[in-house]
Write a structure and sequence with these properties.
Shape of chain B: elongated
Helix content of chain A: 55-70%
Protein name (chain A): Cytochrome bc complex cytochrome b subunit
InterPro entries (chain A): Cyt_b/b6_C, Cyt_b/b6_C_sf, Cytb/b6-like_sf
Number of strands of chain A: 0
Number of strands of chain B: 0
Distance between the termini of chain B: 28 Å
Strand content of chain B: under 5%
Order of helices and strands of chain B: HH
Pfam families (chain A): Cytochrom_B_C (PF00032)
Radius of gyration of chain B: 19 Å
Keywords (chain A): Electron transport, Heme, Iron, Membrane, Metal-binding, Transmembrane, Transmembrane helix, Transport
Radius of gyration of chain A: 29 Å
Largest interface: A-B, 9 and 9 residues
Membrane topology (chain A): Multi-pass membrane protein
Helix content of chain B: over 70%
Oligomer: heterodimer
């Protein structure tokens, strides 16, 4: 570190954060702002890294602007009236028109009203509880034991309840394993893969609850329900690991850690 | 890129809406069966039915191939052209 570096202190975060919306965020260049030429002359260590990083970002932005055929305007936002209101009104009218059009063109047949005195053949909870109901229907997976002469160790009902305990327990235990400090999935590909697989499992296990309505054999449905999420998780992990390279993950992470604490 | 997306999306949704409507008229014996929109169509009684039943497959393939063309074929072709051009410049 020489003396000139002390007087020209590098600011990595752009100064005071403007989070109140009162400022435009556009700062005119002044005498204290180092020019690109000055940044370029710093040839060592982090300052050089800073220059390369921002110069690459600036150059990519410039190339994108030159490639684009959109007209650039010096406008930061549009007033609510009339611009936003007219746009939102057009979008709302479009969707109202689509609802009217589809309901006129495709009137669904109204069946007889439900008979409250007879139990339907398929009993289902509300749709957001299908996952739990699907876990209760895992009796094909309840293994029979040879030492017990092929009979099952625990009843199918208890097996389904234990499956619920396992899933709910895993979800409850998750915050102790990962605090959720990642700001985007590429930062923690493993946990992102766990999340993607879990979200997909919530859908596939919900399909088990309505297995009667799905025109697939039950064995195939169970395979999809349990192997599908694993496959999706592996694909997510591989994709995010690949994305790290183009995303300059290591450099971004260093800049994230450079920021001063609040 | 964004233009290609909205072109493909417009074709997919527009032709898909027309396919869904016509298939709902001719290929849906009941809304409470799993074969709705894909059941075999009935024998056309008049010329309008015949045209409509013919257009079902036309709109379905327009939706699928339109999206495929604008989302995959045309961008891939542009990438290929750019790669060939770049290779020509560098050599």
């Amino acid at each position: 570190m020489s003396d000139t570096d002390d007087t020209n202190e590098t600011r990595t975060d752009g100064g005071e954060p403007a989070t109140d919306g009162g400022e435009t965020g556009i700062v005119a260049p002044d005498d204290e702002t180092p020019t690109w030429q000055e940044r370029k002359t710093r040839k060592s260590g982090l300052s050089q890294l800073t220059y390369e990083y921002f110069e690459r970002a600036r150059r990519e932005d410039q190339e994108l602007r030159e490639e684009s055929d959109y007209v650039e305007r010096d406008v930061l936002g549009f007033p609510t009236w009339p611009h936003e209101i007219i746009r939102n009104g057009a979008i709302s009218l479009f969707f109202v028109g689509m609802i009217l059009l589809i309901s006129a063109a495709l009137p669904p047949s109204l069946e007889l009203p439900a008979n409250p005195s007879s139990t339907p053949s398929i009993i289902l909870p509300d749709w957001y509880l299908y996952w739990s109901f699907g876990l209760l229907k895992l009796n094909p997976l309840n293994p029979g034991l040879a030492v017990l002469d092929g009979s099952k160790l625990i009843s199918d009902q208890l097996y389904g309840v234990l499956a619920n305990v396992v899933v709910v327990g895993a979800v409850a235990f998750l915050p102790f394993l990962n605090k959720g400090s990642a700001r985007r999935p590429v930062e923690q590909p493993f946990w992102a893969a766990i999340g993607a697989g879990g979200a997909f499992f919530a859908i596939t296990i919900a399909a088990i609850a309505v297995q009667n309505l799905i025109p697939l054999p039950l064995a195939l449905q169970l395979n999809i329900a349990f192997i599908g999420p694993v496959v999706l998780g592996v694909m997510t992990y591989a994709l995010l690991k690949t994305l790290r390279e183009g995303y300059m993950y290591g450099l971004n992470r260093r800049y994230y850690m450079l920021r001063p604490p609040k | 890129m964004a233009d290609e997306f909205i072109k493909g999306f417009g074709i997919l949704t527009g032709a898909g809406l027309l396919w869904m409507t016509l298939a709902g008229w001719y290929q849906t014996p009941s809304f409470f069966m799993t074969n709705q929109l894909i059941a075999p169509p009935p024998e056309p009684g008049n010329v309008f039915d015949a045209i409509s039943i013919f257009l079902i497959d036309v709109f379905l393939w327009t939706a699928l191939l339109g999206a495929f063309a604008f989302w995959i074929l045309i961008p891939a072709g542009k990438e290929l052209a750019a790669a060939i051009e770049e290779r020509g410049e560098s050599s």
